Amino acid sequence: MTARIVTELGPWSWWVLGMLLLAAELLMPGVFLVWIGLAALATGALSLLLWDLAVWSWQVQALAFAFASVAFTLAGRRYYGRADIGSDEPLLNQRGASLVGRTATLAEPIREGRGRIRLDDTFWIVSGPDLAAGTRVRVVSSNGRDLTVEET
Amino acid sequence: MLAGPDIVVIALVALVVLVLFAGIKTVPQGYRYTIERFGRYTRTLEPGLNLIVPFIERIGAKMNVMEQVLDVPTQEVITKDNASVSADAVAFYQVLNAAEAAYQVANLENAILNLTMTNIRSVMGSMDLDELLSNREVINDRLLKVVDEAVRPWGIKVTRVEIKDIQPPVDLVDAMGRQMKAEREKRAQVLEAEGFRNAQILRAEGAKQSAILEAEGQREAAYREAEARERLAEAEAKATRLVSEAIAAGDLNAINYFVAQKYTEAMTSIGTASNSKIVLMPMEASALVGSLGGIGAIAREVFGDQGTRPVRPATPAAPAAATRVTPPARTTPTVNPFGPSSET
Q: Chain B contact for A92, CB < 8 A?
């Protein structure tokens, strides 16, 4: 039955497949079927042009589809995978990084490179040059858990 | 029928789809996925669209990097002064390094929980019950420091440890209630006693003040009285001097006249006293006779020399002196302290 439908639809069967895949992506979000769906649509577009050529057999179409899938995925990642777009809260869930630039006073002196500051009602272990407790420091960088400070 | 190459094509398409399925990884915000290449950690996926190399890379752990709450169950703690209290707490932690949290510790949550519980015991066990109940902030701070330091290798941060409830045994709570009540009562009694004391002091001070004022008044009055008596004496002396001057200047009989007159007046008043007609006369009768002699001398002087003429010319000087002498003598008891000053 599938074969008959495909035969009857001709080049449009790729379009149908593509749209079904896109619809499935909407139903089951995973940013996976969308690329395959786009590849199917692209193959359908090519099929409309090349349908009557002998070269454009179903095997070639399938290979074109597979190639297009990979190509779309890579292109999609290239465009959408960049970290610097699409967020107005780039430091979300990066607690240490979000503290860079803040100033605080040392709750415990920095000795042998390690001290403690109180910030946002919790203690942070900081590293930096040896300083006495009570010194005002500024957070200059963070490696996630520990903060690096310098005297302001 | 399908030929061999056809099947290969179909298989290839299927493989490509599966590879894409395995390679495309979308990480939601709030999570980090660790990637293992042949089982070894290589990198961490950030939120967003990610591709991994299928076959050789796999998702290792899906770490939640949002701050999480950990309920520390109630446990019995023995305090420094051997009171057994039950305490529960709540801890907040956040995974800051997904790889460390995934691979440095097994069963992260359980590890944090046990760490917190044991530290609650050691921190609370080093304090007295009273300290424990009044110094939550200190306990929280100490717990936070210790626990946060301990979880450092695990790539997580404990942002808060809060003691929720400290429950001393029932009998201890009773005793504490009684202690508090006694304390309040003590304060009330002290306040009452203090109030009474202050009132007494004020009262005594009032009495003292009034006594002082009264004594001062009396002193002032005495001074004034003494002054009055002085003035009186002065006046009397002056009067006496005037009389004696008058006598020296005039006739001695003038004074004799007055003495005789007073004497007879006194005798009259004694004689007319209603209580008794028996009069004891302590004075010498001869004195009266003497005074009569004085009268006779006056009469002789007046009548003997000038016949029947009334006795006016001799008297003017003497009565004048006498009237000036007697009034102060008669008013002695009622002398006003302010009186004499007006006479000077």
A: yes
Q: Which residue of A has its CA nearest to B3?
A: A59
Q: Which of A32, A62, A81 sits opposite B20 (nearest CB)?
A: A32
DSSP B39-92: TEEEEEEPSEEEE--TTTEEEEEEEE-S-EEEEEEEEEEE-TTS-EEEEEEEEE
Q: How far apart are CA A97 and CA A120, in angstroms?
A: 14
Q: Average pLDDT per run of 10 along chain B, which is 344 residues long?
A: 81 90 88 93 89 90 92 92 91 92 92 93 90 88 90 90 89 90 96 96 96 96 95 92 81 76 83 66 61 74 60 47 46 47 44
CA A78 to chain CA centroid, Å, is 9
Beta-carbon contacts below 8 Å between A and B? 87
> What residues does each domain of chain A span?
1-83, 90-151
Tell me which chain A residue has its CA closest to the CA of residue B2: A59
A109 in B contact zone (CB under 8 Å): no
Q: Which of A6, A20, A58, A59 to mutate: most B Cβ within 10 Å?
A: A59
Whether the complex's predicted ipTM surpasses the cut of 0.85:
no
Paired tokens of A120 = 């946002």
The CB density around residue A123, as the number of other CB atoms within 10 Å, is 20
User: Looking at CA atoms only, how far is residue A83 from chain B in angstroms?
Assistant: 8
Nearest to B26 among A30, A73, A93 (CB): A30
| Interchain proximity B24–A144, CB inside 8 Å | no
Backbone φ, ψ for residue A114 (5° rounding) = -130, 135
Fold (topology level) of A90-151 = OB fold (Dihydrolipoamide Acetyltransferase, E2P) (2.40.50)
The domain segmentation of chain B, as residue ranges, is: 4-63, 66-168
- Rounded Cα–Cα distance for residues A13 and B284 (Å): 178
Assign a CATH topology to domain B66-168.
Tetrahydropterin Synthase; Chain A (3.30.479)
